[in-house]
Amino acid sequence: MHTVHTDNIFPGVELTCINTDKFKTGTLSINLVSNLNRETAAHTALLPRVLRRGSKDYPDMERISSALDELYGARIEPTIRKKGELHCIGFHVDFPDDRFIGSSGNLLEETATLAGGILLAPDLSGGLLRDDYVQSEKKNLIDDIRSIINDKRGYSVDRLLEEMCSGEAYSINRLGSETEALKITPQSLTECYLNMISEAKLEIYYCGTAKPEQVKSALQNALANLPQRNNLPKLGTEIILYPPSDAPKRVVETLDVTQGKLVAGFRLGKAMENNPDYPALMLFNAIYGSGVMSKLFLNVREKLALCYYASSSLDKHKGIMLVSSGVEYANFEVALKEILAQLDHVKNGDISDVEMNAAKGTITTSIKASMDRPAGLLELYFDGSVSAIQYDPEKLCEMIEAVSVDQIVNTAAEINTDTIYFLTGENDDGTRN
Prior knowledge:
By secondary structure, the protein is of the alpha+beta class. The chain is 41% helix and 22% strand. It has helices spanning 41-51, 61-70, 107-120, 131-147, 152-164, 178-181, 186-199, 212-222, 278-288, 295-303, 332-347, 353-370, 374-385, 393-401, 405-412; strands at residues 3-10, 13-19, 25-35, 75-83, 86-96, 124-125, 128-129, 201-208, 249-254, 260-267, 309-315, 320-327, 416-424. The longest helix has 18 residues, at 353-370. It has 15 helices and 13 strands. Mean pLDDT is 94; it is low at 428-433. It has two domains: 3-222, 2-Layer Sandwich (Cytochrome Bc1 Complex, Chain A, domain 1), CATH 3.30.830.10; 249-424, 2-Layer Sandwich (Cytochrome Bc1 Complex, Chain A, domain 1), CATH 3.30.830. The strands form three sheets. Strands 1-2-8-3-5-4 form a six-stranded mixed sheet, sandwiched between helices. It has a five-stranded mixed sheet with strand order 9-13-10-12-11, with helices on both faces. Helix 1 packs across helix 4 (131-147), helix 10 (295-303) runs antiparallel to helix 11 (332-347) and helix 12 runs antiparallel to helix 14 (393-401).
């Protein structure tokens, strides 16, 4: 069991304390949340990596590591996430819970102070973020962006989103683009940093045994130099309910691959209007294509052997579903036809009790497994806080168990194909498959 308490540390700085004695560590998740922007995405993604390199009090990684060692092996790691069209950067911090240290333990306060210094007092040179740190981490960021193409499955999903959401912020990768990353300088990154710490929403999550008032006090001291934030920009994700045309957009790309990659993108229609029924959406996705008991896995992959893998994923923040599949080039059309046929089966209510129970078990087990890890528990609450409908993980499990087939059918009724992407190779004669 755990209890949850929310409070404001400063204006625009929200703290959520999840109190539990289940874990041996205390954990902080520090998140700067802004709207995804194509021109600044690479800068934003680079910031936590550069900040982690050194602070005013601990100006290099060696001294930061030494300070963490003195805190019984505490950790501070940069995080870069994308939630719908929100860009979330910051730090994951964990340390031994003070109850294991003895009466003199104050690791929460000391670790929070160290993390606050990394965030608010970076090591500067001439008033700018250090050039050597910027250039080193910039190179690493560009290498990470370039490496995306090496994972053809992930690359295909990224390309589908670029095509399907070409005029939307959702098409932006969480790391930004290589073109924009190449433009980064110490001056431009420092400007981005100053904007972020004064204008981005700051959401902090704590998991451990410390009382909320103790956590709040520790963070107020650690973040005392945070610029005042009173007029924060409005944050949100644009949700487009329907595809722009009746006929799905088709994109075919040729690369040196031995296995075709088929990705289909769908808009969720009325399911995302007003108050989305998240439990029904999650169950729909599980029955249709998420897991080994789904229709895509059992029929398209196992029974008909039309693909090497086939699975669906849902972004409830954006109102988009993706189906990703690995296929032989010659099986593209027939595999696509069967993928869409299985969607129609769900829309028509062709859902057995076995499928329903398996889907409910899969989802609730996954949620409960996440709640068995501090990072997973914090992620569930953070994900809920940036959703259109905020939810508690335990309550969500109860709601999932209560979902009916009719709810799923109603949720799936207006899910329509928006874009189909196919990554193919070449025949020996050089012609496209």
